User: Fold this.
Amino acid sequence: MQSRSHALPVLRSRRVRRGPAAVVSAVAVAALTTAVPPATAEARTDVALEWYDATAETIAAAGAPTQSTNSRTWAIGWLAAARALRATPSGVDVRDYRDAALAGAVHTTLVTLIPARAEDLDARLRRTLERIPDGPAEERGLAAGAAQARTVLAAREGDGLDPASVNVAFPTPEPGPGIWQPTPPAHSPGLQAGNRRARPFLLERADQYRLAPPPALGSPRYRADLAEVRAYGSADSTVRTALQTETAAFWYGSSLTLYTGPLRVALARLDRPVAERARLVALFHVALVDTQIATSDSKYAHLRWRPVTAIRSADIDGDPATEPDPDWTPLHTTPAHPDYPSGHATYSGAAEQILTSLVGARTAPFTLTSPTAPGVTRTYTDWRTLTRENVDARVWSGIHTRTADTAGVVLGRQVARHTLQNAHRLFR
Assistant:
């Protein structure tokens, strides 16, 4: 028991373990068609799902106020787990070792980054360890996972993804046609501007996939965008349907929260070795961190005003065809950062690309609920529908133009493809 007491001195009684975890190589893979077999009395607990849930619940209970910081926590923990699972030492039970390694990696990451949840996480680890026989497989796996977590944590130290760095003060630009300004009702200064200064996991630079400028003011595309959001995104719209209003509300909250469910579905149904399943979760969140960095770069490079500003200030956009409406109000409150591109859409594009490449485009039906649409349950059979709904939802909420949404999907997919093409750099 010496190696365990050295790795985790507060946990001297028992083991680790967690079933499969994550994904294929950096290129595509087979479609996800295998259903999870029915549980039996002898069925072994899936440690990958156990610690996936532990990660999600820990972040929900005491995570950071910034989405990119929480994505970073996911990425570090599951990257450490995937690295610990690359090889199994000879002379030990393979599954016991892998379960212990996965739990050790994720546990060490979470208690380090979210120490307020240490007591709960320690209890979870004890429960996992109690299911693994004492011996070298458990001890060596636990030690390997913890060691990989410490290595990744050290490598990411000072990467600029902490809340203070992400939300570093951004000076409001001088007002002008098309230029972002703080939006009602709070008129808060720009948030998340610091993401563009953070160190990516795999991107070479934050501006590596910077989007081309948004449509010129007064152009046909600009007019169409503004006319659509003015009509369908207004708080008192007479053309938006009840279903469209529901969609806007469903996707109004954090995309990180809503994509936790679909990723878990993919993880549960992926009938592959635990190392590949851990890679799925790791690559998903590595792509999401880098996507958020790239999103911030394009947002603050182009500084395009939000629809509420554009519609209320149409008299200064130089286009006589657009009339100002100083009382226009969007269905939902506009977030405090520029319009182009939509962060929700970049997140969706990246998530769709990772899931499609690594588990296939379609899956058996699964349901999803949303904290911003109480009582609503939606059923999906593919990942792209989630992306389409995100694009529509931000327009119907009145907080993004359609061009900002569609451009965001393109950016997210580009970053995700880059992640997959360069995944070998994470696991060497």
